[in-house]
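Hi W.,

Here's what went into the run:
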Amino acid sequence: MSAGRGDIKLDGLVKRYGEVVAVNGIDLDVPGGEFFTMLGPSGCGKTTTLRLIAGFERPDEGGILLDGVDMSRTPPHRRNVNTVFQSYALFPHRTVEDNVGFGLRYQKVSKAEHARRVGEAMELVRLSGLGHRKPGQLSGGQQQRVALARALVLEPPVLLLDEPLGALDARLRLDLQVELKRIQETLEVTFIYVTHDQDEALTMSDRVAVMRDGNIEQCGPPQELYEEPSTAFVANFLGASNLVPVQAVANGAGGAQLTLGSFTLQAAESSADLRGDALAMIRPERVRLEPHGTTGENRMPGMVEEVVYLGFHQDVRVRLATGALIRVDVPNDGDAIEYEQGNAVAVHLPPRYLRVLAADEPPAAIEQAAVPAEAS
Amino acid sequence: MTDTTALERGIGAAPTRARRRRFQWRDPWGHPRGLALVTWIYILWSIVPVLLAIRFAFNSGRSRSAAQGWSLRWFWKDPNLSVFHDPTLSSALQQSLTLAFFAMLIATPLGVALALGLQRWRGPGSGTANVLTLLPLVTPELVFAVGLFLLFTTAFKVLGLGTTAQVIGHVTFSMSFVVVIVRGRLATIGGDLEEAAADLGAPPWDVVRRILVPLLLPAIAASLLIVFALSIDDFVVSQYLASGADTTTVPMRIYAQARAAPTPALNALATIMLTVTLLALGLAYLVFRLMTRGEGGGSAIGQLAGIEAGIDAGGSK
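Here's what came out:
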């Protein structure tokens, strides 16, 4: 598996089911060896895109290029990509070894080579010694590893993973996240990973594409998506955020000037040239709470409406005088003040953390869309 | 310490009869005696007539209702009236087994293919086809038989009545059962496995051969058995499509002779049929156990339930 192989390029990919457009003209370039994640709520088209790349669906328009060769008309059994299914799709009537070796039959390898590669793949996913069991006799985590070994044994330049950890419990999921990343880095395979879990997307990916309604909303490294979301949808889907409807009065090189009721707010430089209705976005962990009466730039009085104790931090919800609700993460660092309902406070929204986003839709709709569903 | 002893005394103390009864009624963890009783009454009720019929197959006298000792006279010992020696009875048995055999061999592959087709067909017309396939399950058999009779005496006159028509009739109505059984199994298997096999490089024919057929085997075995049972059991279609004495089946013979001069030979004939069916069931059960070993317990049991449901459906037809 040499580096440089496994480039995936999607070129204006469209897939319709009757009236419904599942994938709406996606363009994408994934260089070989990248851990690329498609993140989005159910129905956003991420799984359909993956199935198009695998060949289970036929695109209505557009091309799918693997290392520069269009394979959009190649049937799945002749495509040099392999899939790890959400359901694992292990063959129940075959032993683990037979499952792992299933695809090698079509690669015309010698018997010795077959045995060696199955053994290596089993070792890679730490399943040595379980080869003679049937899939039904394995735990969920072990089945997941078999599914992975079965795909990796073929040494594909690109591995497609459809919510591979979705059926596992939280603890196991964390362990396997680390392991998936280790395997991906060892083998230098291109991973195209579909998930609705933002933590998975943030911890493992080199790049993430947030999808919505068959389109890619924003694509970039996890840090960029988290720190500089370009839309309210991305801000809400990746991590928690406060989105406050504001009026943008000025927007220039020095930053944006916003008004919220009778208050004036300064915000960091914004690429969008916005005037009028806009959303001010700030992450809850970037909001500061200060004693009541503190004045200064970007400080507003408010009243604590609710406090939720979450162990490592407190989630404090503050109602501003203008009526907006602001969520604040107060870290449980040992000297944090314990807030109570009814406390009067000053809310400080540091300008460099405040971003201005287009108010292209009502916040309610965003919130609804951001609720992760079981599957898409 | 005192608490513990009090608790122990409380457990050891025998409750009064009234208290115990109330306790049982309210105790959802207790043994469901009432339900067990109903179950046993039902089993006895349904099995006693069968046992009685079998008992008189071994009667040494001519009576089918009074016990007159034991013998194998009605099976083959009697030189004229036994199943083995009475040409009408043995030919009926032969005809029944022939029909069942061919119906089984034809209806099962066709039904599997139909189930696969219906499973994959998406688009206009697929819903209608789905319903139409299952129509024979609810069509009164008499209507069905009259229709087939008309068909074989007019449009398909070339074929005419007789064994061929009977086989075609049996295949036609039993295919619906095959479709139901196979589609149930297909739904359990799911589409993922086929996609996974293709993804790993298996061309379409290999997907069928290496994945689909092995996983469908329990359903195929169940289908064979059910078609066999349905065909052996059938009276109306066989009767309408019969062309003479040599196409008389066991149910037809039993029905006709029961009004003329019934002897325990009829019981013997019925006993043979029952044995054949039970042997087939036992065989199918063993085959499942072997085929689904290690697949996880649920599957074998589920398939067995499928067979039993099919047998029940066959019995009530």
